Amino acid sequence: MERLQKVLAHAGVASRRQSEKLIMSGRVRVNDTVVTELGTKVGVHDKIVVDGVPVTSETPVYIMLYKPRGVISTANDDKGRKTVVDLVENVSQRIYPVGRLDYDTSGLLLLTNDGELANRLTHPKYEVEKTYIAKVTGTPTNDAMKTLRQGITVDGETYAPAKSKIISSDPKKKTAIVSLTIHEGKNHQVKKMLAAMNLPVEKLKREQYGFLTLKGLNAGDYRPLKPEEVKELRRLTGLA
Predict the structure, then answer these.
(1) What is the pLDDT of residues 48-92, one digit of tens each?
(2) 161, 173, 169: which is closest to 140 by C-alpha?
């Protein structure tokens, strides 16, 4: 017997957190009875239905996408805009992005139907690092980069210390390229941290997620993760 939200996550319905919301909102039925209590235990012979659709175990899918700018980091969009899931073809399983990248941000994004792994990858407890390359307006200083490495508070929101460095600078155009590595995933975090240093972001790309990089991919390209890569992600998040 396992908790219902864990079964839903493993089946690729949604992340563990989203599965809990589905249960609490009365959208899940077990053996034709609506279940709203978190922690409800179910077995292999129980019939589980979400929004009228039976839940069955799916083969785990793990995909790395080079998200282009101008694409939404969701599985579907009520405004009809193109989503990251729309870019992935020939996958019959129900997949969703691990975390998100802003509409105008490009770079490495993982998609999966493994809710447990997705939940851990996005949880700051496991400190999986993400590296971003930003084109900023202004001239960054070593003191500004040092401040970011010490951690900062912006509008009451505290951000953990980040690895930061200046890659290049163009004094004539008053722009620069900087690198920032964080292990949190707070809303607009990189943009807010750099803006706090008077370095508003013009362009932003996530170049690395843990040990994974965009090598060999162009914007819009994707590939399945190799078994050893999945194993390493699980090791990083305590699931090995």
Answers:
(1) 999 998 887 678 899 999 999 999 999 888 888 999 999 999 898
(2) 169
**Main-chain phi, psi angles of 77, to 5 degrees:** -135, 125
Specify the pLDDT at position 15. Answer: 76
Residues labelled catalytic: 102
Position 154: which residue type? V
Which pLDDT belongs to residue 6? 83
* Residues 133 and 205 placed together within one structural domain of the fold: yes
**Is there a contact between 4 and 23 (Cβ–Cβ < 8 Å)?**
yes
**In terms of Cα–Cα distance, which of 192, 198, 179 is closest to 139?**
198
**Where does residue 32 rank: exposed (0-12), middle (13-18), buried (19+ CB within 10 A)?**
exposed
Handedness of CA 108, 111, 114, 119 (dihedral sign): positive
Residue 115 identity (one-letter amino acid):
G
The segments of the chain whose pLDDT lies below 50 read none
* Among 142, 202, 138, CA closest to 170: 138
Global pTM? 0.80
Same domain, yes or no: 170 and 203:
yes
Number of folded domains that form the chain: 3
Give dist(CA 29, CA 26) in Å, integer.
Answer: 8
